[in-house]
Amino acid sequence: MLTGLPLILLLLAAVAFIVFATAKLNLHAFLTLLVAAYATGLIAGLDPTNAATLVTDGFGNVLGYIGIVILAGTIIGKALERSGAAIVIADTILGLIGEDNTAEVMAVTGSLVSIPVFCDSGYVILSGLGRSLAERSKLSLATISVALASGLYVTHVFVPPTPGPIAAAGILGADVGLVMLAGIAVSVPITFVGAKWATTVASRYHIDPDPDMTMDDVKEEYGTLPSPARSFTPILLPIVLITIGSIASYPSADDPAFVAGALQDWLLFFGDPAVALIIGAFASFAVVPEITDEVTDEWVSDGLTDAAVIVAVTGAGGAFGNVLSALPLEGFISNTFGGLGIGLFAAFVTAAALKTALGSSTVAILTTAGLVAPLLGSLGLASQWGRVFAVLAIGAGSMTVSHANDSYFWIITEFSDMETATAYQAWTAGTLVLGLSSIVWIVVLQNIVGMLG
Q1: What is the distance between the alpha carbons of residues 96 and 308, in angstroms, rounded to a whole number?
Q2: 259-314 pLDDT tens trace
Q3: How far apart are the first and last CA of the chain?
Q4: Domain regions of the chain by residue span
Q5: N or C: which end of the chain has fewer CB within 10 A?
Q6: Within its chain, how far is the Cα of 177 from the centroid?
Q7: Distance from CA of residue 396 to its chain's centroid?
Q8: Dist. CA 422–CA 91, nearest whole Å
Q9: Is 60 left (phi over 0), alpha (psi -120 to 50) or beta?
Q10: HSE toward the beta carbon, residue 293, CA cutoff 13 A
C-alpha cells in the first residue's frame, strides 16, 4: 500500500481529478466523487473487495445519518416557497427592523429562509420582493441584491439542515445540534458583515430596481398569505427541538445530569435532527389555510425530487471520505504538520481552494470533509468541539470565493440586472470578505470555548 509522500501525491491527483471532471468535463459530482473514491482506493493498494465495501459503506453511513434530515428540509423549503411564507418572513422582519434598514432586512430574511431552502432557490423566491423593497427604499438594486445573496449564503454553509454543513457533520462525526448552535453564532455577525458590504461597496453601483411587481403585487400572486407565526414555525420549531436535545445530553455522564430518566430520553428523541425535521415538515403543512392533497402529496413529491441530487452527491462524498479514512494518511500529516496549530486554517484553505476551482460550495464542503476526516487527530481537531469548528471552518472556506464557475453567481447577476464586471466587484470581492471574516470569528469562538473549558 502507498504511504508517505506517494500517498499525498495520489491524494492531490484525486482532488485535481475532481476539479477537472466537474469543471472541464461537466461530469456530475455524484459520478465524479464515486470514480475518485474507487480509483483512489485501488491505486493506493487497497484490496478490490475492500475498496468496493468501503465505498458502499461510506455512502450508506452518511445517508443513514443525515438522509432523512435532507429530505425533510427540502419539504419544508418547498412549502415556504409555494405558500408565500418566505414573503411573510421578509415582511415581518421589515416591520421589526424598519424600512431605514432595508439591506439588513434582506440579509436577515435571506439567512432565515436559507436554513431549509437552498440559497439558489431562496434568491429566486425573494428576488421579486427585493426589487419591490429597493424601489420603496430608493436604494440601488445592487445593494439589496448583495445583501440578500449574502444572508442566504451565510446560513447555506453554516447552519443545518442545509445539506453542506449537515453532511460535513456526518462525515466528521460532529454533533449536529452543536453545529447548529455554533453555526448560528457564526452566522449572526457575518450576516451583518454582508449587509455592511452591501451598503458601503455594492451601493456604489447603481441599478434601477424597475420592479415588475410592487410588494402588494407579490403578496397578491400568492393569494391568502399565512400568518407570521405559521410562516416562522417550520424553521424555528426544528431548531428549538434540536437545541433542547443537545442541552439535554449535557453535561456528560460523569457529571450531575441536567435532566435524567424518561424526560431526558424523550427530549433526546424529539431533539434528534431527523425527528425534529420531520415534525417541522408536518408543521409546514399549516402554512396554508386548508391542507389539501396538493400540499401533502404534490408539494412533498416535488421536495423529494429536488432532494434526490443533494442526497446522491452527499452519499458519494461520504463514500470518498470513507475510502480516505482507510488509508495511512494520519502518520504523514502528523509528522509533517503536528504541533503547528493550523488545523482550522488547513480546513479553511482547502475548502476555499476547492470552492474557487469547482464553483459548488456543497461539493467543496463534501470533498474537504472527506479529506479532513481521517486527519482530525493530526490537525488537533479530534475533540467534540474540534469537530464542530472543523465543520464551520470548512463552511467558511466553501464561500471563498463565488465567481463565474458558480451557478449562484449567475443567478445573482441574472435576477439583479447586474453586469458581470460589476458582479465581480460587488459580489465576488464580498464573498472573499465574508469568508475571511468568518474564519477569524470561528477561531475567536474556538478560543472562547477553549477558555470556558
Answers
A1: 37
A2: 677 888 898 899 888 888 899 999 999 888 888 888 899 989 988 887 787 788 87
A3: 41
A4: 5-452
A5: C
A6: 14
A7: 10
A8: 28
A9: alpha
A10: 0
Contact 207, 146 (CB under 8 A): no
Distance CA 211, CA 205 (A): 17
The label of the residue with cell 452527499 reads: 314
Q: Is 225 helix (H, G, I), strand (E, B) or coil?
A: coil
Question: In one letter, which amino acid is 156?
Answer: H
The single residue listed with the C-alpha cell 431549509 is 116
Residue 339 has pLDDT above 60, yes or no: no
Residue type, 382: A
Q: 208 phi and psi, to 5 degrees?
A: -65, 125
Indicate the helix (H) or strand (E) that contains 85: helix 85-97
Question: CB–CB of 142/422 below 8 Å?
Answer: yes
The DSSP annotation for 289-335 comes to: SS--HIIIIIIHHHHHHHHHHHHHHHHHHHHHHHHHHTSS-HHHHHH
Q: Could you give the CA distance from residue 392 to residue 30 in angstroms, rounded to a whole number?
A: 23
Is pTM, for the whole model, over 0.85? Answer: no
